[in-house]
Amino acid sequence: MKQLIWISFFLIFSFSKAQDVAILKYNGGGDWYANPTAVPNLIQFANKNIRTQIAENPITVQVNSEDIFNFPLVFMTGHGNVVFSDDEIENLKKYLISGGFLHISDNYGLDKFIRKELKKVFPNLELQEIPSSHPIFNQTFSFPNGIPKIHEHDKKPAQAFGIFYEGRLVVFYDFETDLSDGWEDEIIHNNPKEVREKALKMGANIIEYAFKN
C-alpha cells in the first residue's frame, strides 16, 4: 500500500523531475521487442522538446513484475499473440488503477489478441474511441483532428482507443496508424520527415499526458 501511495504522489508532483519509461515484455509468442529504435528515439525527442528527463535507454519489464510500479508509463507493441496469465492480469490492473499508464501501439496483427486480453484485465470496461477534443491531443503539440495517420495497414482511418477507469485514461491504444513505426530510425521505413515528426509529437503528447495524469 505504501508503494502505491508513493507512486500516485510521484505521478502528480514530479513531472519536471527525472522519470523513466519501460517496454512491456509479454508472453504468447508475439514480438514484444518489435521496433527497437522507436522508444529510444521518442525519449530523445521528448527530452529535447518537452523538457522531460527520461533515461535514454528504456527498461524492459514483465507484466507480473513489481518493477512495473517504478514507471509512470509503459509501452507495448508487437505483431502477434498476447497472453496474460492470472497473476499478470492482477498485477497489470493494480498498476493501472494505482496511477500507471499503458500505451499500446498496434504494429499490425496485435489487435485481435490485445483486445481479448484487455477484457480480462477490465471485464466491465470497454475500449472507447477517444474524441479529438480529449486533452491528450492538446498538450505541448496540438492535434485538433485527433491521432495522425502514420503507417498504412488496411486503408482504414487512424483511431485512438482508450480504457477509462473512474474517469481517468489508463490505456491508450493507437490503431491503424502505428505511431511507433514513425518513431523508428528514418532508414527503417523511409517515412518522410513530416510524417516522422507528427508521430514523435503525438508520442511526446502521450508521455506528457501520462506523466501529468
UniProtKB/TrEMBL annotation:
Xref: InterPro entries: Class_I_gatase-like (IPR029062), DUF4159 (IPR025297)
Keywords attached to this entry: Signal
Signal peptide: 1-18
Domain DUF4159: from-to ranges: 21-211
Transmembrane segments: none
Entries under Gene3D superfamilies matching the protein: Domain of unknown function DUF4159
Short name of one Pfam family: DUF4159
Domain of life: Bacteria
Name of this chain's protein: DUF4159 domain-containing protein
Organism field: Polaribacter gangjinensis
